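User: Fold both of these, please.

Assistant: Here is the first one.
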Amino acid sequence: MFSPLALAASTSLQELASKPQDYLGQEVEMEAYCVKNGRSGDVIGYECTSQDGVYVDADDIEPEAAKEKLAGDCAGGGCMATIQFVPHSYSTSSAIEPGKTVTVFNAEKAKVSF
């Protein structure tokens, strides 16, 4: 089960991206757009993307209603959601968004609410 807010402000997301190792195993909350299988279709599970270059690849999301909404009204990442997750690893990439380095966190599960 997830507890309340760990991070929410853009400045906190900037810190999250600059010191990702400090947040491994810690609960994080942020606003993001989520897409099943990722924007490019190359993610197993769900990819959630913030406007500040922080990505979350989650193997699964909960609750079931969020999965249904992402498959329906919000297909293709059309809805902003609040996600809570506990990252177990991360990587950085300059190939995902040309001209920008993004941080990609990996999590087993994310709780998504709209």
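And the second sequence with its predicted structure:
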Amino acid sequence: MSVVVGLAAAGITVVAGAPLTAAIGTLALYAGVGYYASRHPDVIWGGRRETGPDWVAGGFAGGFSFGLLALVAVDAAPWILVLAVGFAGFGFVSGVAWTRADAGEEST
């Protein structure tokens, strides 16, 4: 599944006029995000919270919204938007993974 997501994102960047190196990077970024998100869907959708708001899912949605709004406001090329979402997603899910590893949480 994560490879399919990566290939789809790479295809979108190529159609949007990206250079081949950006498409390869996009494939790797989205495959990584897809892999981690499929192993830990609560990062995207919430559900791990015991009490109070789900700050992880909220941070994910808020960060993506702010970043995309900023990129659209400067009229960036469409392929840059796709690559930027990949960077943001990869940074977020890898940060959560490292935090969970440091806290000693088991992966499910």
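The first helix runs from residue 2 to 15.
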